[in-house]
Amino acid sequence: MTANSKIDPNAMNRRDQIVSQIILLVITASVLFPILYVIGLSFNPDPRRPTSLVIWPAQPTLDNYKQVLDHPTANPVSFAQLALNSFGLSSGVAAVSILFAVFAAYAFSRFQFKGRSEVMIFIFVLRLIPGVATLLPMFLLLNRVTTSSTVLGFIIGVAAAIILFAVVSWFVGRLRDNEAGTGAIGTLLLGLIIGGAIAYGAYDSINKGEEFILRNSLYGVGIAMVSGGLPFAVWNLKGYLDTIPKELEEAARIDGASFNQTFFRVVLPLAAPVLAVTFFLNFMGNWAEFYVSWQFLTDPSNYTLSMTLWNIVGQYAANIPWNIFAAYAVVMALPVAIIYLVFQRQIVGGLTLGGVKG
Amino acid sequence: MTMITAAASRALQNQQGSTGKVGTGPYLYLFPTVIVTVVLGLLPVLYQVWMSFTDFQLANIRPDNPPALIGLKNYIGVLTADQGVIKVADFNFWKTLFFNLWWAVSSVFTTIVAGILIAVVLNSQGLWFKRVYRVLFILPMVVPTLVVNTVWRNMFDPQNGAINIALMAIGGFFGLSKEALQIDWLNSIAHPLPWFFPWQAMPVQYFAMMLSNFWRGWPWVTIVATGALQSIPTELYEAAGIDGATSVQKFFNITMPLLRPAIVPAAILSFNWTFNILDIPYFLTGGAPFHETELLVSWLFRLVNEQRLYGVAAAFSVIIFAVSVTLFFITNRFARATEAADS
User: Fold this and answer.
1) Are B127 and A20 an interchain contact pair (Cβ–Cβ within 8 Å)?
2) Is residue B8 over pLDDT 50?
3) In terms of Cα–Cα distance, which of A205, A204, A229, A202 is closest to A292?
4) pLDDT value at residue A55
5) Is residue A358's pLDDT more than 50?
6) Is residue B284 predicted with pLDDT exceeding 80?
7) In the CATH scheme, what is the code of domain A77-146+216-356?
8) Is B326 an 8 Å CB contact of chain A?
9) Which residues of A touch B169 (CB under 8 A)?
10) Structure confidence at residue B4 (pLDDT)
11) Domain ranges of chain A
12) Chain A residues in contact with B54 (beta carbon < 8 A)
């Protein structure tokens, strides 16, 4: 035994410390190498790959980022449009999935009713199917749903009006009860943004005035993605709700709260953190989603960020502008990476929720 | 207080037992999800089952041109790789299934082992820069797999790819020749290290896939394992130390058994992810060489997206569905078996 370990029997001795540090430094180098390489490449003025190991280019330039943030490919679609498509699709699918799932998860988690286990098995079996395995029927079925974009615009417009009305009247109700805290204001703003975005979509759709095929639109892609994401969301949320003690709800019920009041006033606030985590997880999966949009969409103005990444790198075997690719990869990874790093503790906890309970 | 809640709990249970006040509430809450899963989940599956018995082609997309029923021909074609049905070179269901299973098992095994070992090193008391390492080691997880695999595809280039340049730099240090380290990661048809895989040698691309998946995969295991390690009381190690246990003995007799409840679900989850990961074969290797590194889902995507063999793809989907359900029961069994070993 060394002198060190006599003072604190659990602390590492010098030799172990040095060996561990060397191992960890090698791991750090392997972790950072691809990241630094791509970041370096993204500032490189030369579209070819450097022939020697250069992490930082001799003449760094921001031109690649300028080009990526303007028009990343030869397709007539701006980066802003791509980002808007990806963001709208990702958040829309996540929001819709969770909206449906939280009610179902609550019913499964708390109540014994006729047909409960049958419905649970049904949803669970659907969760087992890999997403790619339902791509084909989704493609063919949604291809049958056609209308004119004017009709569609009016339908979406009504939906936007309902959302905006519901959010505003809910907030006015809160104001009247003097309960309009920061949370309520945040919800109001979020609702207004979502409602406004949908209203803009409606306006855009009416203006287009062409034949609308549900399959060949971001709505169709979103519908196919919800069908894959919903069973996961139900299972994740049920896994979490199972861990919330029932006493609070029971106390509320004794006090005469109705079924709905218990859910909205007691359960939802408790579940808010896990709703956020499930939203992020779903959002991140949707952000990098590729195969549904690749199969469904043909109009470049509907393309997503991940489709464009593959457009940059996949189609032209030779003469790939690697510096543009690198800048684009950095820009695409950055938003989710930041969300992940900020909320990593909650997100890691959320990942295991649905998986543990079979 | 506890008495009140206990009484309340009993009262509520009675209420539920007699289907009293709760009434239609749960059904109303379930209704939207059930409708969505029936329309968007069950209906496509049933449609696909019907399609799998037809010779559905691109021309049959028009509703006025229904396909002809051909019985089990698609299924037989997929399972026997009948060229008359599949019409794609190098399609072999059983070979792909075997590769897919081996891929998932080997990549999960390597990430789990490395993840646990790194977590153990990171968890040693008095380690310097612990927090810095913990933050740095999350970085691979936060990058979307699509980006990871396109970036690795760039780095695996035989000419000026970053991997080969780095290998040459390290190899030159140890006096290895440059030619020996200029590995053709993505286009080679070589199957190196045959002694390592006695049943079937793996192509070079398999190692590229393993590297890419390993880089992104182990940090997640480390995070799960770290959480579990921190809940192991240090007294256990102290007691074992007094009894004269070596650190290896401590690892196998204390750390491993107490990690198991956290690691087994994580392993099953990552098995499911890796088994069905489309990004790696599609963006990294493109299935090369000769579709050897194709997984079931990437083959399916090619049948749908590139070949447009809709009837065949439908049958293939149904088979993949059957594989998924079978795997679920096997992994579930595995989880139960390891649970039983604990108690």
Assistant:
1) yes
2) no
3) A229
4) 76
5) no
6) yes
7) 1.10.3720.10
8) no
9) 53
10) 46
11) 3-65, 77-146+216-356
12) none
Average pLDDT of chain A, as a whole number: 83
The pair of structure tokens assigned to A121 is: 């098995």
**Nearest-by-Cβ selection for A333 from B32, B144, B238:** B144
Given this model, what pLDDT does residue B97 score? 94
Whether A336 sits inside 8 A of B21 (CB atoms) is no
Residue-level pLDDT at B116: 93
Q: Give B192→chain A minimum CA distance, Å.
A: 23
Taking the CA of residue A220 as centre, how many other CA atoms within 13 Å lie in the half-sphere pointing to its CB? 29
Residues 6+ apart with CB under 8 A from A3: none
CA distance B29 to B25: 6
Residues in chain B within 8 Å Cβ distance of A116? 26
Quick check: ipTM above 0.95? no
Beta bridge partners of B54: B69
Token representation of residue B220: 């997640």
Q: Given this model, what pLDDT does residue B214 score?
A: 93
Domain boundaries, chain B: 44-87+309-343, 95-295
Q: How long, in residues, is chain A?
A: 358
> For the ranges A48-57, A199-208, A242-251, which has the lowest average pLDDT?
A48-57
Place of tokens 């958040």: A91
Check if B70 contacts A (Cβ < 8 Å). no
CB contact under 8 A, A325 and B215: no
The per-residue b/e assignment along A74-85, b for 16 or more CB within 10 angstroms, e otherwise, is: eeebebeebbbb
pLDDT tens per residue, range B150-208:
888 888 888 778 888 888 888 878 877 777 777 888 888 878 877 777 777 888 889 99
**A255 and chain B: CB distance < 8 Å anywhere?**
no
- What is the band of B22 on the pLDDT scale with cuts at 50, 70, 90? low
d(CA B176, CA B187): 23
By C-alpha distance, the chain A residue nearest B2 is: A247
Name the residue with tokens 């880089």.
B215
Q: Is A342 on the interface with B (CB under 8 A)?
A: no
**Per-residue pLDDT tens over the stretch A115-154:** 888 888 888 888 888 888 889 999 998 888 888 778 888 8
From the list B136, B276, B305, the residue facing A28 with the nearest CB is B136
B289: preceding bond cis by omega (within 30 degrees): yes
Superfamily of domain B95-295: MetI-like (1.10.3720.10)
Distance CA B73, CA B91 (A): 16
Residues on chain B touching A226 (C-beta within 8 angstroms): 36, 40
Tell me if B162 and A37 make a contact (CB, 8 A cut-off).
Answer: yes
Nearest CA in chain A to B9: A250
pLDDT grade for B1, boundaries at 50, 70 and 90: very low
pLDDT at residue A67, as a whole number: 84
Residues of A within 8 A of B42 (CB-CB) are: 122, 126
Of B30, B161, B305, the CB nearest to A294: B305
Q: Do B317 and A134 touch (CB under 8 A)?
A: yes
